[in-house]
Design brief:
- There is one protein chain.
- The protein is of the alpha+beta class and 328 residues long.
- Helix content is 33%, strand content 29%.
- The strands form 4 sheets. Strands 5-6-7-11-10-9-8 form a 7-stranded mixed β-sheet, with helices on both faces. A 5-stranded antiparallel β-sheet has the order 15-14-13-12-16, with no helix packed on it. Strands 1-2 form a two-stranded antiparallel ribbon.
- A hairpin with a 4-residue loop joins strand 14 and strand 15.
- Helix 6 crosses helix 9.
- The N and C termini lie far apart (48 Å).
- The structure holds biotin (BTN).
């Protein structure tokens, strides 16, 4: 643990009480000048810290950041842990960073997070709106022992984990739109972009990229997505701690992944079906260049959408954009 993290931990434990500079320098075995430098850096990161020559230092308010210090120094949950969190203030894309780290051998459970992305990637080559400090941009590395054909299961599993964490943490009625959009009252609150690297007969690694609109306000949404998107703050009417929400999402992914490994995919898919908002609905599905209209009969255990088309045929659809014809 770095001196800065230890200092922050001590101040958090103090719970509103002052800590003397001398006491801190003794406990952390560094000079008082070094303590002052760390306090200065913490303030730059957004922590509100009072200082007094007589009383020392007092942490008034933690910063709303996604760094390991806020997710929880010393925090672990199965494959995840504070030691495996890589935080960027700015990066091009956390997925891109995580793919590069995974290619270099980074272990399962490595998490890349950013306060903002300059090249956030969405599905089907779209751009992911990534303003600074408001939302969650996170990518998780997994190394499941599955054949490449089963990789879509990881995305469906992530959608279950994300929807359940959002429900638990915010009490908002999160639903899953096939394949992996998370909606609140028909508007998108989160998206998942999974990228994989495979050997001939097995998956080498998977990166699950999670974009969650958390504290963005309606007025901040670009006009082209304002009609279709929402955030926890817009839907729930209040700001929430991004770090607490991310912790809950990671714990949820960890629990789903453990269940997937022990019991197989079937129980996860049952949960996916419970949370979905497309089965039984009349929809159009846009696939690059073609459009099908019909009723969704099911989503099978490989995540394939089974559509009863208007001409009575059954279509198996592997990827596309679904629009419900009767909105929620
Ligand atoms: C979608 O199109 O619905 C998927 C969006 C996924 C966005 C996230 S943000 C964190 C991670 N890094 C990226 O570049 N994309 C994903």
């Amino acid at each position: 643990m770095s001196t800065k993290t230890k200092l922050l931990d001590l101040m958090k434990k103090q719970d509103g009480q002052w800590l003397s500079g001398e006491g801190l320098s003794r406990q952390l075995a560094v000079s008082r000048a070094a303590i002052w430098k760390h306090i200065h850096n913490l303030r730059d990161e957004g922590y509100i810290i009072d200082s007094s020559t007589r009383k020392g230092y007092l942490l008034r308010e933690s910063a709303d950041r996604l760094a390991a210090d806020e997710i929880g120094s010393g925090w672990t949950s199965g494959i995840f842990g504070a030691e495996k969190i890589i935080h960027h203030d700015v990066t091009d894309s956390t997925n891109r960073r995580a793919m590069a780290l995974a290619a270099g051998g980074a272990p399962e459970g490595t998490l890349v997070v950013a306060e903002t992305q300059t090249g956030g990637r969405g599905r089907r080559g779209r751009v992911w709106f990534s303003p600074a400090g408001d939302n969650i941009y996170a990518s998780v590395i997994l190394r499941p022992t599955i054949p490449p054909g089963q990789a879509p299961r990881i995305t469906l599993m992530a959608a279950v984990a994300l929807a359940e964490a959002l429900r638990k943490q915010t009490e908002l009625p999160a639903r899953i739109k096939w394949p992996n959009d998370i909606l609140i009252s028909g508007k998108k609150i989160a998206g998942i972009l999974t990228e994989i690297s495979t050997d001939m007969d097995r998956v080498d690694y998977v990166v699950i990229g999670l974009g969650v609109n958390v504290n963005t306000r309606a007025a901040d949404l670009p006009s082209d997505i304002a009609r279709l998107a929402t955030s926890v703050r817009i839907a729930g009417g209040r700001r929430v701690s991004r770090a607490a929400l991310l912790r809950s999402i990671l714990e949820s992914i960890d629990a789903c992944y453990a269940q997937f490994q022990v019991e197989g995919f079937s129980p996860i898919m049952d949960r996916w079906r419970r949370h979905n908002n497309v089965i039984g609905q009349r929809v159009t599905v846009d696939m690059l260049g073609t459009r099908h209209t019909g009723v969704v009969e099911n989503v099978d255990d490989d995540g394939v959408l089974i559509l009863r088309t208007d001409d009575g045929g059954l279509k198996r659809i592997f990827s596309g954009d679904v629009t419900r014809l009767r909105p929620e």
